[in-house]
Amino acid sequence: ITVLRGAWGSQPFDFHGEHYRIAGAATVKPPDPPPEIFFGGASPAAERVAARHADVYLTWGETPGQVAERIDRMRTLADEAQRQLRFGIRLHVISRDTSEEAWAVTDRMLDAMSDDVIALAQSQFLSAESVGQRRMAALHGGSRENLVVSPNLWAGFGLVRSGAGTALVGSHREVADRIAEYHRLGIDHFILSGQPHLEEAYWFGEGVFPLLRGDGLI
């Protein structure tokens, strides 16, 4: 990241570190303004890098309590580095006109996940070196039971999908309220997705966006 930022400068950049030797790094047209660096990682080493170099620290969709604890720790690390961080979160979304409709979607998704596929995925996740992946797996323990790990937060994606494994699920109002809750904790950036992508984007755009706008969040 140091080299990247240096190459974005107006003068050729030299760097001599443990792993990299750079002489005269430059870009043909330096970006103005330079892009912000979004950085994620749950290990202590990754947190230290983020505190020293990132503009926005990203976390996967853990419970509000876990996210609050992470933000507090990252703010302390950033203070020690005499820097300030902003925060983002990565989540899936299943938003419908009613809560019942939204949770029915999770039931259909869960029915389509075979026990063999879940077992194979979980064996791979549990052996992963990624601290973040292990934290995602710990939310559900590989079990179909108790996948609602916090109000409107469903961990079912994480049974078969690596990386971001949780979804905000509920009525448009409930999803908007959960987004507002994370925002109050300090989250400014929300990286959201859904399956199928286009259809879920319409559900969210038509149902949740107006509520967020009315709440003064966008």
Helix vs. strand class: alpha/beta
User: Whole-number average pLDDT?
Assistant: 94
What is the N-to-C order of secondary-structure elements (H for helix, E for strand)?
A: HEEEHEHEHHHEEEHEHH
Which term fits the overall shape? globular
Report the uncertain regions.
none
Distance between the termini: 30 Å
Give the % helix.
40-55%
Number of strands: 9
Nearest-angstrom radius of gyration? 20 Å
The largest β sheet comes out as: 7 strands, mixed
DSSP strand (E) fraction? 15-25%
Give the count of helical stretches. Answer: 9
Give the gist of this structure:
This protein is an alpha/beta fold.
Q: How would you characterize this protein structure?
A:
With 218 residues, this protein is of the alpha/beta class. The chain is 44% helix and 21% strand. The protein contains 9 helices and 9 strands. The protein has helices at residues 2-7, 44-53, 64-80, 99-111, 115-126, 131-138, 172-185, 197-207, 209-214, and strands at 13-16, 21-25, 38-40, 56-60, 86-96, 148-150, 153-154, 167-171, 187-193. The strands form 2 sheets. Strands 3, 4, 5, 6, 7, 8 and 9 form a 7-stranded mixed sheet that branches. A two-stranded antiparallel sheet has the order 1-2. α2 (44-53) crosses α3 (64-80). It is globular.
